[in-house]
Amino acid sequence: MPLDSTPFISAPLLTTLFLSTLFLSTGLRIWLSKRQIRHVTQHRNAVPSAFAGQIELEAHQKAADYTVAKQRFGRFSLCIDIALLLLLTLGGGLQGLHDFWAGHFDGIIYGLAMMGSVGLLSTLINLPLSYLYQFGLEAQFGFNRMKPALFFADLGKQLLLSVALGGPVITIVLWLIGAMGENWWLYVWLFWVGFNLLVLFSYPRWIAPLFNKFSPMENAELKSRIEALLQRCEFASGGLFVMDGSKRSSHGNAYFTGFGKNRRIVFFDTLLERLTPPQIEAVLAHELGHFKHRHVLGRMAMIFGLSLVFLWLLGQLITSPAFFIGLGLEQGNPALGLLLFSLVLPVFTFPLTPLGSWLSRRQEYEADAYACAQTNGKDLSEALVKLYEDNAATLTPDPLHSAFYDSHPPAALRIAHLTELATKAI
Predict the structure, then answer these.
(1) Are 182 and 315 a contacting pair, CB within 8 Å?
(2) Which distant-in-sequence residues (6+ apart) come within 8 Å of 374 by Cβ?
(3) What are 144's strand-pairing partners?
(4) Residue 305 near residue 394, CB atoms below 8 Å
(5) Beta partners for 107?
(6) How far is residue 127's CA from residue 86's CA, in Å, rounded to a whole number?
(7) DSSP assignment, residue 61?
(8) Which of 16, 36, 178, 241 is deepest in the core (most CB within 10 A)?
């Protein structure tokens, strides 16, 4: 694909824009993290009045300490990620990899080598961080149940899956870029949408079982209660399953996965151990609320729409020499353009984070309202309090940090909303 002599954007301007956005967003992240630590620490020694008698002070303090520890670990990980990004771009890392692989391969094989090299480098750098998080931070607070052998077995499976799925995907994308002319980005988008739908359909039956064991629900009383709820909500499920999440962590959860005949409802075994049948029913009703309000379809449509915009933008940049020069490369090609774009895009989309968080919190309130209409809102409220305690979720997040990042409403606001809904229902 020839490069356009007319730049879409000048190289110096792109360099300045990239660095200024990166450092401003990094400063904002660190500032928000410091606010979160300060606010949580200030409220560490008193359980909020809304939770008095439900959560002990010791559990509240554990949640505060866990939150602070995660914030500090996150800042450390952020610095590593930024250093790697700068090393690969303006630091000449991608240029060095290009010089090496271009001397051995060309075309699609060259592209696969470049993508694989960056992926492997990122994995090797993040591996110690992942290990430290799992066996350091999570273990310190009593959440880790994973053995090192399972950790590395998961890593091996993930790498094999990345090669098995990622290799063909990258091959097809690079072929489409070279074969479909100026509108290649539209063909790549259509392929990308189809691939994601295929993975979504296949995940419950063929991918998820590679990492966990899924057993049909055996509790007859709970199964009968859930099936009655599904019938009331007109939700067709491909089965109720219990996942052995306890072999990795004590955190609990429940979720939907797949679509069509492969749509499943999955409960972590840790969740079933802690909640009563009415509470489990209420939690599931909340998840059904997302389905009933078409939140999942809306998110998919938004993701696919944004991916179309980003691929169109890449289509404009990939022929511009300034795009490559401005980000640390001497020249460009389709594989380099795709790789470079995927590396720097998160820097420019980070300002959209609070918008996505706001939309998610709004949907959580809608799902809560649906759950209260289908089950007892008091059961959902009690279930959430147990989950806050079990997962050491802070009850006192910094309001600004929460508004920027949190996909769920703060605990106090959410419980107050449920209480209001329950009062109206009487």
Answers:
(1) yes
(2) 229, 232, 233, 285, 288, 289
(3) 249
(4) no
(5) none
(6) 19
(7) H
(8) 36
* Distance, CA of 248 to CA of 271 (rounded, Å): 14
Predicted TM-score of the model (pTM): 0.92
Tokens of 411: 């605990």
45 class by beta-carbon count within 10 Å (0-12 exposed, 13-18 middle, 19+ buried): exposed
Q: Please give the Cα distance from 409 to 426 (Å, whole number).
A: 24
Distance CA 283, CA 265 (A): 12
Comparing CA positions, the residue from 70, 222, 43, 234 lying closest to residue 138 is: 70
Q: Residue 352's CB: how many other CB atoms inside 10 A?
A: 10
Which spans in 7-135 are helix H? 11-42, 57-88, 93-102, 107-132
Q: What is the pLDDT of residues 277-325, one digit of tens each?
A: 999 999 999 999 998 999 989 999 999 999 999 999 999 999 999 999 9
Contact criterion met (CB below 8 Å) for 239 and 214: no
Q: How does pLDDT run across 394-416, given as a tens digit for each residue?
A: 999 999 999 999 999 999 999 99
